[in-house]
Amino acid sequence: MKLYYDYKRLYRYIFVLFLGILITIPIVFSYAQTAQELSDKISQKNTDISKLEEEIKQYQIELDGLGKQKNSLNVSIKQLDLTRKKLVADISLTQNKIDKTNLKIRELSLEINNKQERISNSIDAISLSIRQINEFEQNDVLATILSENNFTVVWNDIDNMVAVGNKIRQMIVELKQMKSDLEDTRKETTDAKNELVALKSKLADQKKIVDQNTAEKKKLLTQTKNSETNYQKLLKDRLAKKDAFEKELRDYESQLQYVLDPSKLPNGGVLSWPLDDIYITQLFGKTEAGKRLYANGSHNGVDFRASIGTSVKALADGVVAGTGNTDVQCPGVSFGRFILIKYNDGLASTFGHLSLIKVNIGDKVSRGQVVGYSGNTGYSTGPHLHVSIYAKDAVEVKSVPSKSCPGRILTQPIAPINAYLDPMYYLPRL
Fold first, then answer.
1. Each residue of 166-190: b (16+ CB within 10 Å) or e?
2. Which of 65, 196, 201, 383 is deepest in the core (most CB within 10 A)?
C-alpha cells in the first residue's frame, strides 16, 4: 500500500497548491481593478489629447489665413497673439502626453509585477510536481503493484500521474510564453520612459519659445510705437538691408574657388524630411541637370511651412558643424538662428529661421533626431523653415564684414556658389 499512500500524499500537495492559487485570486482581482482604473484614465487622456490637437489645428488654419493678408502691424500683432495661443495649446498637449505616458508606465509596472508573480507561482508549482514524481519513480513500482489487492485503484493513480506529467509539460510551455511576454513588457516600459524624457525636454523648450514670443511682441510694439507708419518704415528698412546683404554675400561666394566632384555626392533620395508634416512654400532656384546649382539671384534652398515651435529633425547621421544667430550682428537680413550639420554621406545642410537650437557644435546627431524648432528669426516674411544643402567639404561657418550693416561682422554658413545643391533631389520623393 506504500505506493497508494505516496499518491495520496502527492494529491494532498496538489490540493494545498490549489488552495494557494485560490488565495491569490483576490490579489489578481485587485490588480485587474487597478489596471482598469489606469486604462480608464489613459482613455480620458487620449480624449483630451484629441481635443487639443483639434484646437491647435484651428489655430494653424487662422495663422495660415493671416499669412495671406497684407503685411501690417495689426496682422503681425494678431499673428503673435495667435501664435502664443497655439504655443500654450502645444504646451497643454505635451503635458497631457506626459501624464498619459506616466499612467502607461504605471500600467506597465503593474503588468510586470503581475507577470513576475505568475511566473514565480508557476515555477513553484512545476518544482513541487517534479519532486513528487521523482519520489514516486524512486519506489519499486512493480513490487508495489504486485502487493496491492486493488489493481484498479493503482492503475487509476498511475493514469493520474501521467496526467500530472502532461500538465507539467503544458505549464512549462506557458511559463516560456510568460517570460517572453515579460521581456516585451519590460522593453515597452523602457520605450515609454525614453518617450517621457523626450516629452519633458520638449515641454521645457516650448515654455522658452512662449517667452520668446512674448518678448518679440513687446519689442515690435516698442520699435513701432504701435504705429502702422513706423511699422511699414521698419519693413522697408529691413528689406533694403536684406537685399544689400544678399548681394554682397552672393558676390563673396561667387569669388570662392571650388571644384565640385560628383563622385563624392550620394545618390538622390538619401535624406529624410526635416519635419513631420511637409508643405513646401518655395523651391530651390534654377537647376543644372535637374539636381544641382542655382543661377545667381535665385533661391538657394527650399522653404517649408512650419509654425513657430515645430520640431526640426536631422536629415541623416552627422555632426553639428555650426550654430549661431545672425540677428545678433545684423537683425532681419539672413538666417536668424541657424544650425549647420555635416552628414556622413557627403552632404551638409543649414536650417534657418529657427526659434530655438537644441544642439551644440561638435554634437553627433542621428537621422530624425530633433535638433531645433522652427521660427521666424532673421529675414522672414512669416514662420517657416529654410533648408539649404551643400557639398559637405565646401561649406563652413565664416565671419565676414558686412557692408549692409556697417561695422558689423556677420557669422553664418558660407559656400561657393557651385557647392549649393537642390535639396529636392536628395530628399524623399513626394
1. eebeebeeebeebeeebeebeebbe
2. 383
